[in-house]
Specification:
The complex is a heterodimer. Chain A is mainly α. In chain B, strands 1-2 form a two-stranded antiparallel sheet. The chains are: A mainly alpha, B mainly alpha. The interface between A and B is medium-sized, with 29 and 24 residues.
Amino acid sequence: MGDIIQTIVAKYNFWIYITLMMIGLYAMIAKNNLVKKIVGMNIFQTAIILFYVSIGAKRGATIPILEHGHGGGHNVVHAIDYANPLPHVLMLTAIVVAVATLGVALALAIRVYDRYSTLEEDEILSQIREE
Amino acid sequence: MSLQYPGLIVVVPLLSALVISIAGWVNKRWCFPIAVAGLSVAAYSSVGLLFRVLDEGVIVYKLGGWDPPMGIAYYVDHLNGLVLAVVSVVALLNAIASKNSIEQEFPERIGPFYTLYVLMVTGLLGIVVTGDAFNLYVLLEIAALTGYGLIAMGGGRGPLSALNYLYMGTIGACFYLLGIGYLYIMTGSLNMVDIARILPDLYQSKAVMAAFIICMVGVWLKMAFFPLHAWLPNAYTFAPSASSSLIAPLVTKVMIYVMIRLILTIFTPEFSFNILAVSKPIVWLSVIAIFMGAILALSERNLKKMLTFIIIAEVGYMVGGAWLGNRVGMTGAILHIANDALMTLCVFLAVGNIVYKVKGAEFENLQGLFRKMPFTMGAFVIGAMSMIGVPPTCGFFSKWYLISGAIQAGQYGFMVALLFSSLVNVVLFFRVFEICYYEPFSDHHGHGDHHPEPIDEAPVTMLVPLFIVAAILVLVGLYTGDIVNHIVEFAIPKGLV
């Protein structure tokens, strides 16, 4: 039992991102409203951003600028002293992608609303069946 | 000039997309020539690049002069050289062919359409040319986001289908990103060649295994591999003809390319086929995909929707062929990427012409088409023959390799699925031919004053590209031996027997 708790606590960032991801996936599968599905999709994307950001962090490390390093940056650079900036930089791109996806999704939802005057999926489907 | 081909392939379409969106505000008539010019440069560069690769072997292009693995490098080898040439030529031909149907379907949105069109081609070419795993994700999303826009332009049920595609596509891309994240944790690199260099010591690690599987699932979602295919039929059916004849041939094929790149380059065949013993179940999944695609296609009464289910079966061909785990099967899969892109383009262009004239692709609209549109239907027959796998069209040869690979690997289920799907394709297409051959039923029959409908063909600009594609189908079929010996043979690593 102790072992399990130990693994959960030691890798808590993984557990948090998986939980968030599943919340997003649940919303996308189970929710009836198109906008709620889109929100679920965004939570899903955010979970992965969180995962990337968390793997760049280090205990006791500082921001990756030489002057902020231990000893004012005049010593040899120890990678261990700095947080890994690369995953964070990658996530800037991923955030842009997520924002663009969200924008396209909402624009499509507006188009769907214009046509069917509703965003509830079951009502849209029953309208399609009547056509 | 020829040194810069890999850069030009991505940069020229990207910039021309920008120029088109500005030109669209000034004068809509400028959009088409700019788009064609941009795509022509891309097509010229990729074909030139393919010939350079044939001469020199692998080409490494360092963007901005930064050395890999720190900088992003474009790697062009025989595998993506072939796919690049196919993608850019298909995109160019379709742009020329679909000019009239765009003007007919949404005359007021020509500017946005061509912007998205060229941007999508940028994304697809970028996916194929890049040697950086994260760069690939970004370009994947560029291609996907523009694809949602192109599909939604159809109006009607288009936006709803595009939204469903968007949910699935986003999950797929996120899974890919997650898998790359795990790979990054383990190797500290994003460069594909660098990852491949570091990985062999870590093959036993569970994280690497998880990374591989998560990436695969993401890519499968994007390519509509059977249980994950639900988004594809509606999205492709309700898209305007100009969009569907770009998206249907290219998107799934480019994703197959990504899968093969993952199997062969990032993870070696040694890992994919031997250490990770999942080949058999995946081939069985693809058997199910082929059966289900064929059966679902049989139940459709709309030509375009029927073709979308055939695409799902074709995806099964390629995934199964790649996972057979032998050289012949992989040859068949790579060859089928090129062939399937061309023959899907052929049939979708023909459907575009039919929709242009008849305003619908329901089976009851198709009556009398052989008399009304003899040229379009002639090309459609060639495309259909290739889909069925009749020599000398190219579809026969890739199917031949796939079946030989299945026999060699002892996967007889896959062989049966391929033959079954070919037979179903015979039924599907000959049913369409039969409907198109007979005249519409009219009331004044039996009086001898029955006048057959006059010829009412699509414009020449739509017919010429269609004929070119149909001719390419036969030519590629005739030169299959050369393509295999000079290109595909070098695309597969020596280790795979």
